């Protein structure tokens, strides 16, 4: 299947289905808008999750790293914090791609501290 041509709604729906969630009839309000359906994980109301949203606050960290040319150094520090050198190549890439936010912030702080001290 080619995913690139799918709309954001279609991509989100596929993610929900792959996670085993169920779209059910359910009247609920979010942001002063009433909805008649919602995704459920078992009995837990998940609403309409958007897997394509990136927290805008995190983008500030990324912009700062790019502005100061610290992307490579950030990657190396993150790699070390995750102890990814002990993993095979594929596992290391997966671990980096899904690094916990706390670890990303720690790497950002280490890299920018070193830059400020120069």
Protein model, in words:
The chain has 118 residues and is α+β, with helices and mostly antiparallel strands. Helices cover 50% and strands 19% of the residues. It contains 5 helices and 3 strands, in the order H-E-E-E-H-H-H-H. Helix 3 packs across helix 5. The radius of gyration is 19 Å and the shape is elongated. The N and C termini lie far apart (50 Å).
Brief characterization of the structure:
The protein has helices spanning 8-18, 56-67, 71-81, 89-97, 101-116, and strands spanning 22-30, 33-41, 44-47. With 118 residues, the protein is α+β, with helices and mostly antiparallel strands. A hairpin with a 2-residue loop joins strand 2 (33-41) and strand 3 (44-47).
Structural class, from helix and strand content? alpha+beta
Strand order of the largest sheet: 1-2-3
Radius of gyration: 19 Å
What is the percent of helical residues? 40-55%
| Approximate strand percentage | 15-25%
Low-confidence stretches: none
- Mean pLDDT figure: 90
What are the secondary-structure elements, in order, as H or E?
HEEEHHHH
How would the blueprint of this fold be written?
Elements lengths: L7 H11 L3 E9 L2 E9 L2 E4 L8 H12 L3 H11 L7 H9 L3 H16 L2
Antiparallel strand pairs: 1-2, 2-3
Helix pairs in contact: 3-5
Task: Jot down its keywords.
single chain; alpha+beta; 5 helices; 118 residues; elongated; 3 strands
């Amino acid at each position: 299947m080619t995913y690139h041509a799918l709309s954001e709604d279609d991509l989100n729906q596929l993610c929900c289905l792959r996670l085993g969630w169920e779209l059910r009839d359910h009247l609920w309000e979010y942001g002063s808008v009433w909805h008649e359906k919602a995704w459920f994980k078992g009995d837990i109301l998940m609403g309409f999750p958007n897997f394509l949203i990136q927290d805008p606050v995190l983008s500030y960290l990324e912009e700062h790293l790019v502005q100061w040319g610290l992307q490579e150094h950030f990657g190396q520090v993150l790699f070390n914090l995750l102890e990814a050198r002990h993993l095979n190549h594929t596992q290391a890439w997966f671990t980096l791609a899904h690094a916990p936010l706390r670890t990303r912030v720690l790497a950002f702080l280490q890299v920018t501290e070193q830059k400020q001290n120069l």
